[in-house]
Amino acid sequence: MSADPEINVWRAEWVSLAFDDKGTVANIRERAATQQFRLRAWHIVELMSALFFLIFSAALLWRHPAVEVALWFTVVWVSTLTATAFSLWNWRILWKANLQSVAEYTTAYEKRCFATLRGVRFGLRFLAVQMAIGVPWLITGFIRGRIELLRLLASLAFLACWALGFLFLAEHHRRVASTELNELRFSRQTPSE
């Protein structure tokens, strides 16, 4: 019978050390607000990048009205508009009104984590499609004599660096979203005070 109070003391100490206040109301609201701000900033950068690609491709077509440039312009516009449409659909949760209850904060936080994971999966597939278009296009241009060797190598090196940078960012975002989801699930299982 004397073991029961000791077990309760151990349990209380374990809960206080293991859970480290991650499930408190203020902490959930703060984490949700920080996440929302960070994701909104990235979403704005995505939209501005899309706008840049559209304007740049239109300006290039205007300056060099050739069939190959028109085909490239079409590929850029279709792929950019596809990626932008996915981004707007995927991040629609970011632009809804701020929530009030902890349950709503928690649900929105979780939805944004899932949106991040969807975005990473889409981005990796989109990168594969872009590489499948870009690399053969550059090699074909080199074979036809339209691109010199140094420019081909520089372009391929740029694409490789861009792809590696994107893969690094995708893995980082996937890891962060997975960690946030695990922390959220862990905090739901713990008693909040």
How would you characterize this protein structure?
It is elongated, with a radius of gyration of 24 Å. The protein has five helices and no strands. Helix 2 (25-63) packs antiparallel against helix 3 (67-90), helix 3 (67-90) runs antiparallel to helix 4 (102-143) and helix 4 (102-143) runs antiparallel to helix 5. By secondary structure, it is an all-alpha fold. The chain has one domain (23-189).
Shape: elongated
Q: Rg, please?
A: 24 Å
Question: Low-confidence parts lasting 5 or more residues at pLDDT below 50?
Answer: none
Mean pLDDT figure: 77
Largest sheet, if any? none
Number of strands: 0
Summing up helix and strand content along with how strands pair, one would put the structural category as mainly alpha
The topology string of helices and strands comes to HHHHH
**Proportion of residues in β-strands:** under 5%
Approximate helicity band? over 70%
Give the gist of this structure:
84% of the residues lie in helices and 0% in strands. It is mostly helical and 193 residues long.
Write the layout of secondary structure elements.
Elements: H1 3-19, H2 25-63, H3 67-90, H4 102-143, H5 149-189
Descriptive keywords:
193 residues, mainly alpha
